[in-house]
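queue> pop job 88
queue> type: inverse folding (structure -> sequence)
queue> payload:
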């Protein structure tokens, strides 16, 4: 059977070098070879997040990274305001509630970005201890105005957690300049590597708040312990636990590739891929899920407008075009399909067969 190419919003297609790095090492999670890769990856993640602060690489996933961030910032009984732009706000809600916090969801108008004025008025109405939102809402393809939203929260003195699990590596992030307290990600989406790692970037401004926290932090999930371990043994045992060694090497290689390409070039390539796909979809009469100006450079949601079921398109593309895309989420499951253009798939050449496949299906 021909290999199916992934245009799903995670895990994404990864380069041959990244794949080779995953399986190329039988090494340990201790010693100089691993330590160099681990420490280099944490350093190379800093400009991608846009921080001079600490970045934790932990075994796991984006959900775990988010939960660690919540545990770092929110005490039991405190309230987190989650800007609800889709599926992943409900995932975050589980972490908030599971950590003993109270989650308040503020609905974001479908198809539009979260509104800073709406956030400002919500913050004026009740005591909020943490503001959470996605950089990119992967379930719809929305790119949120992180800077404007974070500014409103900062003015109100409330820390900000930004979930950039799929955004990071596809869209610029300047978390320090934007005033984001903690930003999270995972290895398998916009960064163009394989699954297996959660990433937690902590601004310097976050540490006093983390120190004040009173509720239990867990052992593994206590971000301070990861930082202390890195500082104590950077050359020998930089991580708190056994790591998926090959997965760290794969991320290291993906980040080195990113560095070689240059971040600005990479973001421009993703922007171009997004514009190319969106134009093509509108060209065949399909409507996009997100309004112009707020479409994510890494994933696009397209409406079926009742003309077909998205699961039929997904199945057709796998069977006849060896292409895997994704359907929608929740109530809109059949009314939306999503195409990821992340990593190596963020270029016109990679997207042409997807566009041709969608056209063939519509015919
Ligand atoms: C994928 C995703 C997650 C969950 O990440 P996992 O690695 O699957 O745990 C969380 N938030 C967003 C925005 C995502 O795209």
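queue> result:
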């Amino acid at each position: 059977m021909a290999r199916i190419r992934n245009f799903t919003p995670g895990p994404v297609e990864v380069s041959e070098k990244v794949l080779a790095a995953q399986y190329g090492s039988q090494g340990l999670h201790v010693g100089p070879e691993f330590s160099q890769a681990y420490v280099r990856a944490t350093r190379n993640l800093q400009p991608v997040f846009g921080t001079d602060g600490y970045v934790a690489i932990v075994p796991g996933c984006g959900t775990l990274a988010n939960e660690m961030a919540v545990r770092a910032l929110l005490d039991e009984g405190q309230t987190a305001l989650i800007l609800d732009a889709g599926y992943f706000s409900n995932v975050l809600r589980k972490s908030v509630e599971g950590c003993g916090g109270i989650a308040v969801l503020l609905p974001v108008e479908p198809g539009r970005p979260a509104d800073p004025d709406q956030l400002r008025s919500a913050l004026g109405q009740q005591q909020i201890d943490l503001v959470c939102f996605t950089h990119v809402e992967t379930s719809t393809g929305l790119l949120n105005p992180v800077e404007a939203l974070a500014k409103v929260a900062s003015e109100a003195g409330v820390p900000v957690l930004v979930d950039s699990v799929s955004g990071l590596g596809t869209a610029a992030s300047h978390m320090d300049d934007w005033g984001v307290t903690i930003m999270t990600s995972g290895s398998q989406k916009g960064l163009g590597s394989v699954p297996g790692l959660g990433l937690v970037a902590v601004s310097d401004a976050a540490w006093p708040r983390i120190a004040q926290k009173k509720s239990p932090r867990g052992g593994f999930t206590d971000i301070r312990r990861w930082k202390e371990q890195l500082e104590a043994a950077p050359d020998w045992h930089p991580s708190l636990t056994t790591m998926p060694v090959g997965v760290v090497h794969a991320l290291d290689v993906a980040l080195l590739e990113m560095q070689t390409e240059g971040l600005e070039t990479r973001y421009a390539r993703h922007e171009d891929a997004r514009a190319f796909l969106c134009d093509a979809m509108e060209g065949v009469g399909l409507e996009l899920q997100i309004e112009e100006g707020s479409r994510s450079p890494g994933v696009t949601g397209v409406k079926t407008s009742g003309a077909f079921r998205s699961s039929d398109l997904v199945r057709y593309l796998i069977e006849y075009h060896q292409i895997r895309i994704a359907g929608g989420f929740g109530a809109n499951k059949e009314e939306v399909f999503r195409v990821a253009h992340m990593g190596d798939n963020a270029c016109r050449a990679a997207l042409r067969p997807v566009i041709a496949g969608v056209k063939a299906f519509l015919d």
